[in-house]
Amino acid sequence: MKRFLTGVFIMLLMSTLSFAQEEVVINSITISPSETTVTVGVTLHFIAVTYDTEGNEVEAVITWSVGGDIGEINADGEFTALLAGSGTVVASFGEITAQAVVTVNEVVVDEPVVASITISPTEATVVVGEEIKFTAAAYDAEENEVEAEITWSVEGEIGEIKEDGEFTALLAGSGTVVASVGEVTAQAVVTVNESEGEEEPELQPIEIFPDEAKVVIDETVQFEVTVKDAEGVEIEDAVVEWSLSNPDIGTIDENGLFTAVAEGATQVIATYGELFDEAEVEVTAEEQPPSTDANSVSIYRQLPNGNLVKFGSKKYEGDKITIGGLPHPFNYLNGTKILLTENCLSVDITITIKIPDFANIDETTDDVSFEGDILTAITFEVTVDGEVVSPFYFDEPVELTVPFKLGLLNNLGIDPEDLGLFFVTDTGELDGSGIDDVVVDPEADDITGDVEHFSDIAVAPKSAVPTLVEDDTIPEGFALSQNYPNPFNPETVIPYRITETANVKITIYNVVGQHVKTLVNELTLSGSYSVTWNGTDEAGRQLNSGLYFYRIQAGTSTQTRKLMLMK
Question: pLDDT tens digits for 424-443?
């Protein structure tokens, strides 16, 4: 009996172990919810149940996935919607799957219902041309401020308004500025008045130049007036009225150009508003030469088309000349002054005032401008007996005053005290040597200096020119300077400089290239030198008046210049 029971127990145990070792067979899966609609950002938990072949619910490890780019799901079946669209959530166990259809919609934000609008300011008074900014706020039924797109408009032809509420008054009258959201509106009452006009700026006394003139019948003088505000800044395009105290003596046009018609005296009167200034004019029948044997100067101005316009009557050594330009484009020259010092000339000369070749002239406005550091510049072309002599050296320096525009300096940030007066070389460089005793007058807006010769002369900041070396230092570069005086009688000085020891030869030639005289022929140390020529040839014979050339040769370098001998 004991043996029988033991055998039965063993059989039951083996049967149980055999059952435990059988694999679970999944026949189907259900997923819940099987279909759903959510919005972007929502998280939803899906549940999957597995069944065996007998329909019994059994446990199994489910794998989750998403079909389509609508979202993502984790291992616990938690789905997060990311993008609007349609897709599926898939639960799978091996090859057995179940799907749920998912639709993801965009988040719909309900537009707030605007119940009222406030506008600020609620009323305004402006003048034509003035601008004012309006603002508006929207509120719901509970008087909570809500975001809303405000539409702006103007009722009445008083002006215009931008999308940001900026109103510009255009016409005098009354009207309203309207802020609206749909059918909800708010209004501001606006009154537009005519402009009262700008107040006239305070002005400094006006100045007329030249302040005196002596002319002969049929000659002209160009007068000019400078109008400045309280800060001393020139008022551009100021309209000045011109008149004469004695209209029988001459005429004057709207640009200040006086024409002499009869002998006598008159005052030229310039008026700007309540301001005025006067200039004295004396008209004679013909030019009256001085009682002395002083040399004369005739002055012309050359127009851009090449025509020459004579300026006033002849001047003589000791005279002070105030140059008037022409309205356009010489207006920038008005106020230039030349003091012909005693004994500055040995011959009669003609000075032609030109706009420099390196100037830029605006074809539309005739305004004259310059490149680089040059603020203004003038060409003084000197003619002796019909022959142009450039540069022309005076026997004694003459005093030259050149005006500048303070407004231009202010725009460029240049202090008038930093200005200098310079010659402009053939290569366009600025050279201050030969110009002494330079003084800037900020009140008169001009700069004055003693110049040794006439050529191209410019006003520029001192910083535009490198500091020159002292006289006792070695000069920079090989150079043969222009002789002075030129023209000359009976002798002239020829300056030159070299940078290294060399055999230096300076020779005079006539206009046909024939050798006239050798002035220097020796070994010379580096430095600055000069040699004097008395107008004679190698035999000591006095040469005839005319044009000659002088040439320097130092080592392999040569340079040639012209000079004029006058009797």
Answer: 887 778 888 788 889 988 87
Task: Indicate whether 312 and 258 sit together in one domain.
Answer: no
User: Which CATH number do you get for residue 94?
Assistant: 2.60.40.10
Residue 13 lies in a domain: no
Q: Check which CATH number belongs to the domain holding 556 and give it.
A: 2.60.40.4070
Residues 82, 72 contacting (CB under 8 angstroms): yes
pLDDT tens-place string over residues 163-178? 999 999 999 999 999 9
- pTM tops 0.85: no
Task: Name residue, tokens 């707030």.
Answer: 112
pLDDT score of 450? 93
Cβ atoms of residues 294 and 301 within 8 Å: no
> CA 428 to CA 125: how far, in whole Å?
59
* Same-domain pairing of 457 and 510: no
Q: Mean pLDDT, the chain, as a whole number? A: 83
Structure-block tokens of residue 131: 């601008």
Q: Using CA atoms, how far apart are residues 104 and 40, in angstroms rounded to an integer?
A: 6
CA separation for the pair 275, 204 (Å, rounded): 9
Structural domain count of the chain: 5
Position 451 in a domain: yes
Beta-carbon contacts of residue 24 (< 8 Å; ≥ 6 apart): 52, 58, 59, 60
Write out the DSSP string of 345-374.
-SS-EEEEEE--TT-EE-TTT--EE-STT-
Both 450 and 302 in a single domain? yes
| Residues 406, 526 share a domain | no
Residue 41 DSSP code: T
Cβ(462)–Cβ(454) below 8 Å: no
Q: What is the CATH number of the domain that holds 377?
A: 2.60.220
> Looking at 193, 226, 253, which one is the last position of a domain?
193
Question: Within a domain: residue 220?
Answer: yes
Domain for residue 18, yes or no? no
Write the burial class of residue 366 (CB in 10 Å: 0-12 exposed, 13-18 middle, 19+ buried).
Answer: middle
418 with 523, same domain: the answer is no
Please tell me the distance from the alpha carbon of residue 484 to that of residue 495, in angstroms, as a whole number.
9
Domain extent, residue 496, equals 479-565
Q: Report the C-alpha gap between 363 and 305 in whole angstroms.
A: 13
User: What is the C-alpha separation between 126 and 551, in angstroms, rounded?
Assistant: 78
Parallel, antiparallel, or unpaired: how do β-strands 479-480 and 212-216 relate? unpaired
Last-in-domain residue among 414, 440, 464 = 464
User: pLDDT per residue over 185-239, tens digit each?
Assistant: 999 999 999 876 555 556 778 888 778 888 888 888 878 887 887 777 777 778 8
Angle (nearest 5°) at CA 552 between 549 and 557:
130
- The DSSP-derived string for 475-534 is PSS-EEPPPBSBSBSS-EEEEEEESS-EEEEEEEE-TT--EEEEEEEEEE-SEEEEEEE-
Q: Check: CB of residue 132 under 8 Å from CB of residue 167.
A: yes
